[in-house]
Prior knowledge:
Blueprint: H1 2-20, H2 22-28, H3 45-49, H4 63-66, E1 78-87, E2 92-102, E3 107-123, E4 140-156, E5 163-176, E6 180-195, E7 198-205, E8 210-216, H5 218-222, E9 238-242, E10 245-256, E11 260-271, E12 280-281, E13 286-297, E14 301-314, E15 320-334, E16 337-349, E17 356-369
Antiparallel strand pairs: 1-2, 1-17, 2-3, 3-4, 4-5, 5-6, 6-7, 6-8, 7-10, 8-9, 10-11, 11-13, 12-13, 13-14, 14-15, 15-16, 16-17
Amino acid sequence: MRHLFSAFRCVVFVGLAAVAARPVVAQTTKTPKYSNEFLNIGVGARALGMGKVQVSLADNATAGYWNPAGLANQKTKYDGVYMHSELFSGIVKNDYTAFSMPIDDKSVVGVSLLRLGVDNIADTRALVNEYGYIDYSKITYFSVADYAVLLSYARKVGNVEGLSIGANGKLIYRNIGNFANGYGFGIDAGLQYNHKGWNLGLMARDVTTTFNAWSINAEEYKKGLTGPALTDAVPKSSTEITLPRLVLGAARRFELPKQFSALVAVDVEGTTDGKRNELLSTGTVSADPRLGLELGYRNVAFLRGGVGNFQKIQNFDRQEQWKGQYSLGAGVAFSGVRLDLALSRLAVEKLGSNASQTNSVIVSLGYGFK
């Protein structure tokens, strides 16, 4: 147990050190909220069906995203997963794939690839020519996309049964057509501890802060502009950072009669980029609690649900009330194959309606083999 607390203190210390450095960093670089937010959408239909409660549970290739320490607990020698989802009525495409494998009896490595993008965006800046006529041949198309590669390493701590630690190196590329692009790098660290039926996890995302350097192509931005548009200000190249966030989780599995089971899990995610519209919020740190449930039958068929992302929303009558983001999911597992489906809904109401807006349908396929 002493070694567990030592590992726990190590991860927490690094996270708190990064938080303490926040005022210094903020003086020299741009520090926006929601930087690199595409990395916080979540991956895997099982996880998204449970309300993104995974930091203490992830034990396959998806652990490279949720908590790299979980890679050391995967049940098969090799594991791979692919996920596709479409957000906002199919406008935004979200794709993810990952693979993990052992390198010795205690260590596992993994790689994860993510892309979130909007394609075929019409550039109509030159639609009207210098004579005031519309020329449809001048319409061009471009994409806005965010990419990330996570390189993961996990290892079991030999002298503490059930304890594993892990880390990610993140490479980020973001582009807005030929107008701008950004490159970034960051590090995550995490641990998992499984003891007497309890699963505990801690994940420190962007533990050293993640830096993105943006470069603006001014010539491309101005190309094809005519008339008043020529006076538009050209954005300047800049650097932004993503500040650390800590996720603490716990889970417990219960065996039920007639070969049924129930898995209950809770995560609390804390951000350090200032006051947010979240259930627990201060001037510096905000926290978002999440709850997930999975009902299983013979470890073959599963039903899932989750809730989190609580926000204070102003309704049509201009009255504020707390709303959560709810999710549902189902899955089957057989012969190493995992097929999962999730449905997530936004916490924001439609104007003049009490119904929530459908966010996305997520499908993922995983396969573990020896």
